[in-house]
Specification:
Elements lengths: L10 H11 L7 H5 L2 E6 L2 E7 L13 H17 L7 E11 L9 E11 L3 E9 L5 E12 L5
Antiparallel strand pairs: 1-2, 2-4, 3-6, 4-5, 5-6
Length: 152
């Protein structure tokens, strides 16, 4: 059994590894929510998930935090695909606009994040969440802080 040294991978390589290896045994927000990384390109990432009753808000529709988490993941991982090995990121700001409610009946949601700018210290990205019929559920933007080693 070979072990992958994820610290040696660029952000793009790491996202490709996650997509192909599907390390479901690794605790993550994706595993918790049932998100699947479905597409990876440099500067663009998409995730899908199926809605479940446990995602319900008090009104019985999918809680807005699910769309926000999908957007944060897709936009942040899109930023990550632009970073070299040993460089990380964290979300500084997340803005979400909710467009329509979603039922908890197993429909598939797709979130796509696309990088707008990736600089030395910050990066920005935009994203969309679509329902199974291709209708816009939510959209957002993010600013990420790029985390480099001291002196880098």
């Amino acid at each position: 059994m070979t072990t992958t040294d994820i610290a040696a991978l660029s952000g793009y390589e790491l996202m490709q590894w996650i997509k192909t290896a599907r390390p479901l045994d690794v605790p993550s927000i994706g595993r918790l929510l049932g998100m699947e990384l479905t597409d990876v390109e440099r500067g663009r990432v998409s995730f899908t998930l199926a809605t479940v009753p446990d995602f319900a808000n008090p009104l019985g529709t999918v809680h807005g935090g699910i769309a926000a988490t999908m957007l944060d993941s897709a936009m942040g991982c899109a930023v990550h695909t632009t970073l070299p090995a040993g460089v990380g990121y964290t979300t500084l700001e997340l803005k979400v606009n909710y467009i329509r409610s979603v039922a908890t009946d197993g429909q598939t949601l797709t979130a796509e994040g696309t990088v707008i700018h990736s600089g030395r210290s910050t990066a920005t990205a935009e994203g969309r969440v679509l329902d199974g019929k291709g209708k816009l559920v939510a959209h957002g933007t993010t600013t990420c802080l790029i985390l480099r080693a001291p002196g880098d």
